[in-house]
Amino acid sequence: MSDIDNIFDRAASGKSLVKKRETLTIDYVPEKLPFRDQEAAALAQTLSTVFKGARPSNLLLFGKPGTGKTAVVKTVVDRLVKKSGALGITVDVPIINAKLANSAYKMLFEIAEHLGLNKEEKKVVHFTGLSMGEATDRILQFIQNKKMRVILVIDEIDSLVDRNGDDVLYSFTRANERMGKGGFVSLIGISNSLTFKDKLDPRVRSSLSEEETVFNPYTVEQLRQILSERAKLAFSEGAITDAAINLCAAMAGREHGDARKAIDLLRVAAELAEREHALRVEEKHVRAAQEKIEKDTNLEVIKNATTHTKFVMLAITKSKNGNTGEVYEVYSSLCRQAEQEPLTQRRVTQIISELDQLGLVSTDIVSQGRYGRSQKIKVAVPLATVKDALKDDPTFSDLMSSSD
């Protein structure tokens, strides 16, 4: 226990390099959003029809993670609510993260809670127990009865459709046909996937994407300026070098132009610098932070993967030559040992492709001369990371020990 006390004592007595930690979190939305004026103006233009007593168009925002979509929506919506309040117009704006809500029904419950439906109507939409259709109908009936103006923001809308299909979206996009005068529901969908629309029923697609905006990734120079502004808010004077900020921007820009990753790098680099009682955050801390984030991310992804994805990962680590056929044989053998029914080879190939996209495995096409070509599959993360991720899963603890 003395080691723990020492850690706490050092942290309490050490110099703090960061003066405002909340500015280095994902949830923090700065007052000024650099390089997103055009997108913010387009969104404000769409929503401004509220002040003319009309329903704003449904809107889809696309872009890779960390391109400022959610921050822009929160900023514009916040100003819309303030302006409409000053003019005596009531606009309700539930902002629901579909990925965090974890199911379509949980999302509906959160919408009901935000609109005050459950408070006023004594739990009309229960946490469990209703069908999706019934829960949706009760929410829409409440909006209609109260003649409410609702702008429903669904962040990570693609994860809702991946898990639950588009039935709920169909109901909300068709809701205005029954609303009559005075009330409406407009949808703003925020998606990390540019191909999200392809998964939708054509009727949902046409009504959901009345207007669209694409957020392009930030350039390295834009990230550098964003990080410089954020560093002024976050760090004490002289607590971070320009070289460290430039390296953060270069690392995040090289990957996806992801501002979230760049700010995460800054935060973790600062934590590592403080732990070693450094006078300032330097490039070495940024490099160490990148290594730590990558390790932690890969560990979490594997730990939270489906059982069969874990079987596939373990099969690749046990495979001798790494070709698709052998990986499938090893995978099937592992399933049988664990008394699980193996998936088809085609589905396993899809899982390997998904793991490749996540950077957890690498797949190379190898020429075998007159015997044609074959795919060679290798794990792209340290074996220790895979073992760490699987060790606490009871299905895999015996399989892991039998492979050592």
Explained architecture:
By secondary structure, this protein is an alpha/beta fold. Helix content is 55%, strand content 10%. It is built from 19 helices and seven strands. The protein has helices at 2-13, 37-47, 69-86, 98-101, 104-115, 117-121, 132-146, 157-164, 167-174, 202-208, 220-234, 242-255, 259-275, 283-303, 307-318, 324-337, 345-357, 383-390, 394-403; strands spanning 59-63, 95-97, 149-155, 184-191, 211-215, 361-367, 373-379. Strands 2-3-4-1-5 form a five-stranded parallel sheet, with helices on both faces. It has a two-stranded antiparallel sheet with strand order 6-7. Helix 9 (167-174) packs across helix 10, helix 11 packs across helix 13 (259-275) and helix 12 crosses helix 13 (259-275). The longest helix has 21 residues, at 283-303. It is globular and about 70 Å long. 36% of the residues are buried.
* Terminus-to-terminus distance: 33 Å
Derived from helix and strand composition plus strand pairing, the structural class reads alpha/beta
Shape: globular
Strand order of the largest sheet: 2-3-4-1-5
Quote the average pLDDT: 86
Whole-number radius of gyration?
25 Å
Work out the helicity level: 55-70%
In this structure, how is the largest beta sheet organized? Answer: 5 strands, parallel
Give unreliable regions as ranges.
none
Tally of DSSP β-strands: 7
What is the beta-strand fraction? 5-15%
What count of helical segments does DSSP give? 19
Please provide the ordered H/E string of secondary-structure elements: HHEHEHHHHEHHEHEHHHHHHHEEHH
